[in-house]
Amino acid sequence: MISVTLFNNKGGVGKTTLIYHLAHMLQRLGKNVLAVDLDPQSNLTAAFLDEEKLELIWREPD
Hints:
Blueprint: H1 15-28, H2 43-48, H3 51-58
C-alpha cells in the first residue's frame, strides 16, 4: 500500500485540485484509491459527489 499526503497551510495553492485529479487518474489506471477530505470546507468531497448527494449530506436536520 502506498500513502500520499498533501499539506500546506496556505490556501489557494491547488491542493484540492491536485488530489482530485491524482485520485481520478490513479483510479483510471486500475488502482484502489481512498481520498480523505479533512478540510472543513469539504471542497474535495463536493468535487466527487453530485448535487443530490451533497444536499442529502448537508441538509439541515428536521
